[in-house]
Design goal:
Oligomer: single chain
Order of helices and strands: HEEEEHHHHHHH
Structural class: mainly alpha
Largest sheet: 2 strands, antiparallel
Radius of gyration: 16 Å
Number of strands: 4
Strand content: under 5%
Number of helices: 8
Strand order of the largest sheet: 1-4
Distance between the termini: 15 Å
Helix content: 25-40%
Shape: globular
Length: 203
């Protein structure tokens, strides 16, 4: 990503679909990833995406179970983790597995634009932007992309958690049903049979 800066929308579609399936599977088996970012996505020789580094992951009993630990990488933190997380259990309202879907939205945006949508000169400025920056300005920066891509990213970056794509029991199903993925054969995608449109250079 440092070399290419940004990627074409069809490539973002394939990677986000593969990452979305991975996140959905983790949630299905009771794992909240909590640290989705480019550094934790690996590509195989054909450009297929895999998640790595489960150091901050946490198991949960239900999709609505609330976690409280403040952790993750600033640019990719969901607003509810910033406002409700805490280093001490019981302080703050906590957050759910839905923080992972916010991070998927951040990653989609970064793949298209080249930078995360919420930035600042310090971690505190980044947190403030995540919590307060108008989502309309984020959507405006995506105006050259398809309406479906904009809709997906804005839907993932929904601050009202129960309106966010991927929320609740439906989880990955609402993600897969988004119009942006209308042409995806999910069974073939799962078997890595669809081309990603990107082949990594050999070292």
């Amino acid at each position: 990503i440092c070399k290419h800066k940004r990627f074409a929308e069809p490539i973002m579609k394939m990677w986000s679909a593969e990452i979305g399936l991975a996140v959905g599977y983790l949630h299905e088996v009771g794992v909240v990833f909590r640290d989705l970012k480019p550094e934790n996505v690996l590509l195989d020789r054909n450009g297929h995406a895999y998640l790595t580094d489960f150091g901050l992951s946490r198991t949960v009993e239900t999709s609505g179970e609330r976690l409280h630990t403040f952790c993750g990488t600033p640019y990719y933190l969901a607003p509810e983790l910033i406002t409700h997380g805490s280093t001490a259990r019981g302080k703050g309202k906590g957050y759910t597995k839905d923080i992972d879907w916010w991070a998927v939205g951040i990653l989609c945006y970064e793949l298209l634009i080249g930078d995360p949508p919420f930035r600042g000169k310090s971690a505190q400025e980044v947190y403030k932007a995540i919590v307060n920056k108008p989502i309309a300005s984020v959507e405006a920066s995506l105006r050259r992309f398809s309406p479906e891509a904009r809709s997906l990213i804005v839907g993932l970056l929904e601050r009202k958690v129960d309106c966010r794509i991927g929320y609740g029991e439906a989880d990955v199903l609402t993600f897969k049903q988004h119009p942006f993925f209308a042409d995806i054969d999910w069974e073939k995608l799962l078997r890595k049979e669809l081309p990603t449109g990107f082949t990594p250079e050999k070292p």
